[in-house]
Every structure is written in C-alpha cells, then in structure tokens.
Amino acid sequence: MSPDRTRFLILAVMLLTAHAARAINVRLEAPQWVPLGGQALLRCRYSVQFTDLHMVAWFRDNKKIFTFIKGRRPAFTNHTVPGAEVDMTHSNEREVLLTNMDVNATGDFYCEVSTEVPSIYTKASEEVLITVYKPQRSPPKVTGLDTDYAPGQRVSANCTSVDGHPPPAITWLLDDIPVDESQVVTWVQPVGSSISGSSLSLVMDPLDERQEAREVKVTCVASHPPYTGPLEYVDIQRKEITVSVMKPQETFDNTLESISSSSAAANAALRGRPVEAVVLLAAVGCVLRRP
Description:
By secondary structure, this protein is an alpha+beta fold. Helix content is 20%, strand content 39%. It has 3 helices and 20 strands. Strands 2, 4, 5, 6, 9, 10 and 11 form a 7-stranded mixed sheet that branches. Strands 13-20-19-15-16 form a 5-stranded mixed sheet. A 4-stranded antiparallel sheet has the order 1-3-8-7, with no helix packed on it. Helix 2 (248-270) runs antiparallel to helix 3. It comes from Frankliniella occidentalis. It is found in: Membrane. Its main location: membrane. This is Hemicentin-2-like isoform X1.
C-alpha cells in the first residue's frame, strides 16, 4: 500500500471516529448540594447502545471512582471515593450511588463512555460540582445597628454566620431587596473555619415630602447556595431587624426624651447623696428645659 493511501485511510478513520464521537450524547445527572451524611445518585445518561458499549467510568477531580467494563469478570470496580462509600448493590453501568458523604467528598464529578471495536472512541460528560454541606443551626448575628436613623445618615453593621460548612454566603436585604455589592464587604475566616461575615455601609434614603417617619427592615441572610431571591435553598438562616428613619427634629426629640428619662432615674438614685451631686443634676435639668 502506498504511503499516500495509508495516510488517506488513517485520516478517514480519524474523521469517522470524530464524527461518531460527536454523535454520542453523554450527560451526568447529579445533585449539586448534599447534606452531611447524605447520599448522591450519579446517573450517566448516554446514547450508546449496549451492544456497542465497552466501558463507562465515573470520575471525581479527574480520578476514577467507579468503572463498568463489559465482558470483564467482575464487570464493576470500586476505586473508592474520599469522604464517601459506593453502594455496590445500587450501582451499575448507568448509575453510581454514593452514601455516607462527608465534606471530603466535595468535588467535580463527570462520567465517560467508551465504545467497542471497530469504532473505538470515548466521550466524557460536562463536570458537575457536588458540595457536601453542614446545615447551620441558628441565625447569623447582626451587630452595629441603631434603632433610629435620620435621612442621609450612614448605616454601618456587621453580620456573621454562626456555623455551617462551607462558610455560608452572606447577603444583605433592605426591605427584602438585595443591597448593591458596592455597599458590602464580605470576608471568610481562614481555611477550615465555618464562619463567614459581611459588613454593610450605606446611606439612608430621604423621606417622602409627606412622610414624618418610616420603618426599614434590614435583613442578613446566610445561605447555601448564595441568595438570589425567594427561591428554594438547601440551607438558609436569616436575621431581621427593623429600624426607624425619622426627620431630624423627631430624632432630636427622642434623644432628649432618652436623656430626660436617664436624668429622672439619676435624680431618684441621688436622693440622700452629697449636695454637689444634687446641684449637678439640677443643672442638667435646666439644660433640658431650656427652650
């Protein structure tokens, strides 16, 4: 056979193989989030007939975890999965069941299908990231918020998740609307920690002309996966705090009322105390009554 003919045949085989590979559909169906101690069914969907099938393999982070090879005895091989167990009684050439999963099983999974001779070719599915999570036990903690604000006053607050793994995503809501990312700084503690946090810094919007005051609901949401709206989440906790936005005079009057109440309490406490303390209290009272 001439060299040219040999090269032609090789090229033809390569083109046919590439065409056949493109004709195969391979897709991995798997949950993206699995609770600690839970299970995941990795179902490999492919369009190859069993008569043409040679091998199906499942991978985690590019390492084989389970294979099926037609005609081999035994046909199934468990290559083990870090952080999980393969249930051999519920695994076959179409699906693999992982059980007792812990955080070490988190990774990118995919499956790969190979066909028999003479048309030998292999095709892999897209990767699916599976995250094993530990649910949060309580709402996040919010600190730094006051109860009353004036329009245009800066609001600064911190939100910290209590537990959960991986560290939950933190999202701030103002009256149930996500706060712009430019007004938020998010952080995660060192590797191995289950705590995440976020700092909020924004300016309160002005009141409408006819408004004397209004209430604003400030919410911190800690969730797996990150919050994107009122959808279903595998793990979500929230802390809501309502603050008041008032015109400056009303805010000032509330402050005076608070000082006056404190002065009254101090007056009661100072009865029977030295004359100097009573004189000081009287001076404070005069300042509060000044028009």
